[in-house]
Amino acid sequence: MHDFIARPEHGVVWITGASSGIGRALALKLAAEGYKVAVTARSHEKLVELQAEARGLSGSIVVLDGDVTDAEDMEHVMASIEYEHGTLAMAILNAGVYLPVHAEDLNRADFDKSFAVNLSGVVNCLLPAIGHMKEKGQGQIAIVSCVTGYGGLPTGAAYGATKAALINMAESLKFDLDKIGIRIQLVSPGFVDTPAAGKNAFPMTSVISVEAAARQIAAGLKSQAFEITFPRRFTTMLKLARLLPYGAYFPLMSRVTGWRERPPSAGHHPATPHPAE
């Protein structure tokens, strides 16, 4: 028996962090395929612009403002989908923030905001989404993590920690969700050309556009795969690198990122905007 795959006729797709980057491109991609897409972010203006851009597509975009760090807000968004727009068929929990962390210049706010958005923000959406899907007896959930969750990388102490937690969360939830007809997937992109990626303190390889990322994710959502990861060669190399003993892993990552030659950080680094702002 195959797992549930959400089609346009099954109901609404909910995407968080949809005002920019991967979330925005994916909303347009799915709307073009005929889905009714509910988009959530904190920037009403950007969501309205996104909705206008989708006019003329075979599907549609519905604007539902909200802050993923506010659990009550996400309950209200879920209620709006259920009572005003239809059955929630799929939730794509994409909102995230990348705040580079340097050990010689630690800032508690970087950790607090990273955990609030990237980790608690997912939980705040998962609870109402799963509650709705459980009543319907079916549904599909995609949690957007990142390959930085595979292993420690320079400046990733906060961001990478949240993404590693999301990987473990998705893996752990799968055991029980399978039993109640809810399909969960993990999205682990490599480096994507987004505003957040521009803040990386080391050279990135195999960078792809947000449109290419959206195509990969859209295709993966229709597959039976648990993990949607791309570009495959690059992400596989990172997975294999994590199998190395630490004595080999740290020198390899230092060399690949150029971190060994980089001088210590001199001051606090500015925050990267939340994709939902």
Summary tags:
277 residues; Rossmann fold; 7-stranded parallel beta sheet; 14% strand; NAD(P)-bd_dom_sf; alpha/beta; 7 strands; oxidoreductase; single chain; oxidoreductase activity; disordered C terminus; Oxidoreductase
Summarize the structure.
By secondary structure, the chain is an alpha/beta fold. It has a 7-stranded parallel beta sheet, sandwiched between helices. 43% of the residues lie in helices and 14% in strands.
* Total DSSP E strands: 7
What percent of residues are in strands?
Answer: 5-15%
Oligomer: single chain
**Low-confidence runs:** 268-277
Q: CATH superfamily, please?
A: NAD(P)-binding Rossmann-like Domain
Which word captures the global form?
globular
Average pLDDT metric: 91
CATH architecture: 3-Layer(aba) Sandwich
Q: Into how many domains do the coordinates divide?
A: 1
Helix proportion: 40-55%
Structural class: alpha/beta
Strand order of the largest sheet: 3-2-1-4-5-6-7
Describe the structure.
The protein has helices at residues 21-32, 44-53, 71-85, 108-136, 159-177, 210-221, 232-241, 246-257, and strands spanning 12-16, 36-40, 60-63, 88-93, 139-144, 182-189, 227-230. The chain has 277 residues and is of the alpha/beta class. It has one domain: Rossmann fold (3-Layer(aba) Sandwich), CATH 3.40.50.720. A seven-stranded parallel sheet has the order 3-2-1-4-5-6-7, sandwiched between helices. Helix 3 (71-85) runs parallel beside helix 4 (108-136). The chain is globular, with a radius of gyration of 18 Å. The termini are far apart. Residues 268-277 have low confidence and may be disordered.
